Amino acid sequence: MLTAKELIHYVDFEHPNITYINPKYVEYFKITALRYSRRDPIHYVNFRSKILTAFGNDIALTFNIYEFLSNEYRPSMVVMRFRLCDFFSDHKYDAFKPFYMKYFNASSCPFPKGEYSVANVSIPNLRLLSTFPLQKGRMFVSYVRGDERVLEFYLDVLIKHRFL
C-alpha cells in the first residue's frame, strides 16, 4: 500500500560563531551545532552559559537576518527586536510559543543569574517556513542592556524542505 508523503519545512542552523561577550554580564557562553547521525538532516544547537546578573526586560534582544546573495551576506527585511521577558509573555509572539515552551521556562523571566544549558534546539515544522522569503542566510543575534553590548553571535541559517 502506498502512502502519501508529507512535506516538512525545517530550519537548519550551522557554523555558530560568538563575536562578543561582555565579561561584566556573561562569564562564558558556548554554542555548538551538530548532527547526531549522517542520516539526520537537522543540525541541533546546544547552548551553555553562565550569566552574572539577572536577565529581564532591561535586555533588548535583536535578530537580524542577512540573505545570502551573489556570494555574500546582505541585510534583509527580516529584523526582530523585543525585550527579553516580553518575548515570552506578549501574545504578538505566540507563533514562536511551541519553540520556546519546549526549551525555556518562561515563567522564570527575569532569568536569575546562574548557569544555563539548553540542548537539542531545533525549529519545528512551522507553516511560516513554507512562505518565508529567504532560503539561505545568516542570523545575527545581539543582547543589549541600555547602551551596553552584552552578547553577540551569529549562525548560518538554511530553510530546507523534505518529504517524510
Plain-language structure description:
This protein is mainly β. It has one domain (7-163): Distorted Sandwich (Ganglioside M2 Activator Protein, Chain: A), CATH 2.70.220. Helices cover 8% and strands 54% of the residues. It is built from 2 helices and 8 strands; from the N terminus they run E-E-E-E-E-H-H-E-E-E. It has helices at residues 84-89, 97-103, and strands spanning 7-21, 26-34, 44-51, 59-69, 72-83, 114-121, 136-145, 148-163. The strands form 2 sheets. A 5-stranded antiparallel sheet has the order 1-8-7-4-5. The protein has a 3-stranded antiparallel sheet with strand order 2-3-6, with no helix packed on it. A hairpin with a 2-residue loop joins strand 7 and strand 8. The longest helix is centred in the middle third of the chain and has 7 residues, at 97-103. The protein is globular, with a radius of gyration of 17 Å. It starts with 6 loop residues before the first strand and ends with a strand. The relative contact order is 0.31. The model has no long low-confidence stretch (mean pLDDT 82).
Number of strands: 8
Q: How many strands, which pairing sense, and closed or not: the largest β-sheet?
A: 5 strands, antiparallel
Strand percentage: over 45%
- Based on secondary structure, the structural category is mainly beta
The CATH level-2 architecture is identified as Distorted Sandwich
Quaternary organisation: single chain
The end-to-end distance, rounded to whole angstroms, is 16 Å
- Helix residue percentage: under 10%
Mean pLDDT comes to: 82
Sheet with most strands: strand arrangement? 1-8-7-4-5
